[in-house]
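Need residues for this backbone.
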């Protein structure tokens, strides 16, 4: 198994599910490797902290699960557009339910808002 972790601010503006230019550039660095892979699933996993979605975004993303899913899907679509075989791509959302740090502090919440790309054998 191979894992790349991206803290959400590297890829997305706060509350957004569309990668900004810097985020596309960052993920783009992995594209040559991902394009050349055969026999592997490329799981794009979205995670959030446990802070409720604010009122301005709640209509589009009712829960953190929805926001994490939308971010994972955006990364998957970008990878596909860059030539990564769509048959190898998986978008997953874990929402707030698999934290890697405490949600009691701003630093912990920042660590929990992330996108992981996991490679696993088919």
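Answer:
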């Amino acid at each position: 198994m191979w894992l790349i972790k991206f803290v959400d601010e590297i890829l997305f503006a706060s509350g957004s599910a569309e990668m900004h230019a810097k985020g596309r550039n960052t993920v783009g660095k992995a594209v040559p490797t991902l394009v050349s892979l055969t026999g592997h699933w490329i799981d794009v996993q979205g995670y959030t902290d446990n802070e409720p979605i604010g009122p301005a975004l709640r209509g589009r993303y009712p829960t953190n699960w929805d926001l994490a899913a939308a971010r994972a899907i955006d990364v998957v679509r970008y990878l596909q557009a860059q030539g990564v075989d769509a048959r190898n791509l998986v978008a997953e959302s874990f929402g707030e339910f698999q934290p890697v740090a405490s949600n009691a502090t701003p630093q912990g919440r920042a660590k929990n808002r992330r996108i992981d790309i996991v490679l696993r054998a088919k």
